[in-house]
């Protein structure tokens, strides 16, 4: 995908997919109630790969539309945790990478104790 962020006073740069996925994953982990990023069974070799492997960035014409997979702690409101993840991920991509975010899809894969 390698998104080119919005204009920043004539500076040209690109942010790679791996960096954007990691940024989104770290933002999601900051939300209270998110237990962890869910391990991708095919990529489950390194902790960093698990973290990055649970965020997808589908190819888009304009803006980003990340899909974040999370586990939610038992007793937390799943809809509220998902909304907070959407806000946090969109904000991080916008503020830290200058990327326009079309939407953030959240997939809750499991509930953990």
From TrEMBL:
Record-linked Pfam families: Asp23
InterPro entries in alphabetical order: Asp23
* Origin species: Rubrobacter taiwanensis
Protein name from the UniProt record: Asp23/Gls24 family envelope stress response protein
* Family membership noted in the UniProt record: Belongs to the asp23 family.
């Amino acid at each position: 995908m390698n998104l080119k962020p919005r204009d920043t006073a004539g500076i040209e740069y690109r942010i790679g997919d791996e960096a954007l996925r990691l940024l989104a994953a770290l933002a999601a982990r900051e939300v209270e109630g998110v237990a962890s990023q869910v391990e991708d069974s095919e990529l489950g070799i390194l902790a960093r790969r698990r973290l990055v492997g649970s965020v997808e960035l589908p190819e888009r014409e304009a803006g980003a539309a990340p899909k974040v997979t999370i586990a939610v702690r038992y007793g937390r409101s799943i809809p509220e945790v998902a909304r907070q993840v959407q806000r946090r991920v969109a904000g991080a991509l916008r503020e830290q990478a200058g990327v326009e975010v079309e939407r953030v899809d959240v997939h809750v894969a499991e509930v953990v104790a």
